[in-house]
Amino acid sequence: MDLNKYSIQMKLLFLAGSSRQDSFNKKLAKLACKLAANSDITAKFIDLADYPMPIYHGDEEAAKGLPDNAIKLKELFVASQGIFIASPEYNSGMTPLLCNALNWISRPHNPQEIPLNAFRSKVFALAAASPGGFGGMRGLVPLRLMLSNIGALVLPDQVCIPAAHTQFNSDDNLVDQKLQGMLKGLVNELIKWVDQ
């Protein structure tokens, strides 16, 4: 696959479902972003820590509308054709931080807005990293279900990094070449689907 020729100016967004400074999933999302970046792709990593917002509450939305950070985050999703999410597993589910962010940006903030425009016609790639043996795999199940139910196209392949505390070197690259190849393959698959 020639990754230097695309039918559109491609914009890909990369983020992690964790705001922890040394998050393994931030490292994974940043590495995926680095693998995607070239002259024909705009690959952008964002940190959800830069978009703090209250826990979603319908009464708060009715009284105040969407928080400014929810609108900013939604605009980034809308402007991107492909979105890569690396998320840790919390009790076999997605993180409260990620769930809350997705809940807020699923809400309209003007009457002319296309419903769920942050998700519809977008291609999502999912990954996880965890110190545990399953690599965060169980947390991707509800995330995949949620995204699919609100109109996103979620790639069937995913990458999970077990024993993540041993898998990143001092340059935050993966030490296991097989896992590195799997991550590169997932990023390439995201690019391929977006370019269709």
Tell me about this structure.
With 196 residues, the protein is of the alpha/beta class. The model has no long low-confidence stretch (mean pLDDT 92). The two termini are 13 Å apart. It has helices spanning 24-36, 58-64, 68-79, 96-105, 137-149, 177-194; strands spanning 10-16, 41-46, 82-86, 123-129, 153-161. It is built from 6 helices and 5 strands; from the N terminus they run βαβααβαβαβα. It has one domain (10-194): Flavodoxin domain (Rossmann fold).
The count of β-strands is: 5
User: How many helix segments?
Assistant: 6
Q: Whole-number average pLDDT?
A: 92
The global form is globular
Task: State the share of residues found in helices, binned by percent.
Answer: 25-40%
Structural class: alpha/beta
Characterize the biggest β-sheet: 5 strands, parallel
- Strand numbers in spatial order across the main sheet: 2-1-3-4-5
CATH fold label:
Rossmann fold
N-to-C CA distance: 13 Å
